């Protein structure tokens, strides 16, 4: 018992949690294990190409009480921060701002997705902010054995290197096209145009640690439960 207490305290101090976290760790066996799990909490990155169903998969993980951080949603929010807007203007000019001086996401997307160099500049500006925000958010998720960051460009951006494990949600190309057409009311051609800006699914599979096949034939939930068990979810009660 006392070895657990000492280890919990050492973990708390090493992570700069301060005196309050140490006291919390000493307040009972459950809190001790909570402190230890925070110290060793796995960071999981999850991705998938358009129409793969990665957001649906994340919702299932959330039903298992696993915290999910939507990196793409948070990145969109950072675009409107005053200091970021100023940097966007310097990098890309005033044409990517609307009449109110706010980022015009459509204009910005049209610029960066046609120019890999410009996209690299945008990612270099936004990704460090997202990463810092994710780490601050993850530090508060002490009730969970692992957290998930959902990101559309996890591998393309190089973010995958900082995670303990990565999960790729896969689906056949035609299935993905049909899903997006139904979801967005888009044409098959417009969906295919968007797909051309994404990495090949087989290439992503070679980089991923874990794969979930969401092809409409294989049951998805058993695959998620298997990964949840592998990541220690069932042992954290």
Please describe what this structure looks like.
With 237 residues, this protein is an alpha/beta fold. Residues 1-34 have low confidence and may be disordered. Helix content is 55%, strand content 10%.
Radius of gyration: 20 Å
Terminal CA distance:
18 Å
Number of strands: 5
Helix content: 40-55%
* Overall outline: globular
On the 0 to 100 scale, the average pLDDT is 84
Q: What composes the largest sheet? A: 5 strands, parallel
Order of helices and strands: HHHEHEHHHHEEHHHEH
Strand portion: 5-15%
Secondary structure class reads alpha/beta
Continuous helix count: 12
Low-confidence stretches: 1-34
Give a quick summary of the entry.
By secondary structure, this protein is α/β, with parallel strands linked by helices. It has twelve helices and five strands. The two termini are 18 Å apart.
Chain-wise SSE layout:
Layout lengths: L1 H13 L4 H7 L3 H12 L1 E6 L6 H10 L4 E3 H8 L3 H11 L12 H8 L3 H23 L7 E5 L14 E6 L2 H12 L3 H8 L5 H7 L2 E4 L6 H11 L7
Parallel strand pairs: 1-3, 1-4, 2-3, 4-5
Please tag this protein with its features.
alpha/beta; 5-stranded parallel beta sheet; 12 helices
């Amino acid at each position: 018992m006392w070895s657990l207490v000492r280890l919990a305290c050492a973990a708390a101090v090493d992570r700069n949690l301060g005196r309050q976290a140490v006291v919390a760790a000493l307040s009972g066996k459950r809190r001790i294990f909570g402190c230890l799990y925070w110290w060793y909490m796995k960071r999981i990155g999850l991705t998938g190409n358009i129409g793969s169903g990665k957001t649906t998969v994340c919702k299932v993980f959330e039903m298992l009480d696993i915290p999910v951080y939507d990196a793409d949603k948070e990145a969109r929010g950072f675009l409107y921060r005053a200091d970021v807007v100023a940097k966007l203007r310097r990098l890309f000019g005033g044409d990517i701002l609307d009449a109110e001086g706010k980022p015009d996401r459509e204009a910005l997307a049209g610029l960066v997705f046609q120019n890999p160099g410009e996209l690299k500049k945008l990612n270099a500006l936004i990704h460090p902010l997202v990463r810092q925000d994710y780490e601050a958010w993850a530090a508060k998720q002490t009730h969970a054995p692992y957290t998930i960051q959902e990101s559309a460009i996890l591998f393309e951006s190089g973010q995958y290197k900082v995670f303990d494990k990565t999960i790729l949600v896969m689906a056949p190309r035609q299935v993905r096209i049909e899903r997006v057409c139904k979801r967005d009311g888009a044409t098959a051609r417009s969906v295919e145009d968007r797909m051309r800006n994404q990495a090949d699914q087989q290439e992503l599979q070679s980089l991923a640690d874990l794969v979930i096949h969401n092809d409409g034939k294989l049951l998805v939930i058993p695959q998620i439960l298997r990964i949840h068990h592998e990541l220690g979810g069932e042992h954290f009660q």
